[in-house]
Amino acid sequence: MDAQKVDMFMMANSKFFEAGQAFAIRERLLQVDDSKWGVIQTIQFKDPTTLLIVSLLGGGLGIDRFMLGDTGMGVGKLLTCGGLGIWTIVDWFMIQDAARQKNMALLQPHLY
Description:
Layout: H1 3-13, H2 22-31, H3 37-41, H4 48-58, H5 63-68, H6 71-79, H7 81-84, H8 86-111
């Protein structure tokens, strides 16, 4: 793929991935053929900052986990009121990493 396209993609979407993965993603995107470019650009990544805000406001109800796509964990948080608040507090620190991991899982099938 064209280096300019890859650099534009990385500038626009680097916040959705862990900093240590950025170089590996860039290198892999350079090796991908141009036919996958349209699909890669249309992937809807989860915004870690938005999920953190939702977690702070509605984490006890599991809304953050539902938004992330973890339906089972969302139901668990909803039924236990966020694990009596403990699970909610833990998610405040972990939800951004979970979002970045989910984003990487969304991108990986298109890189190989």
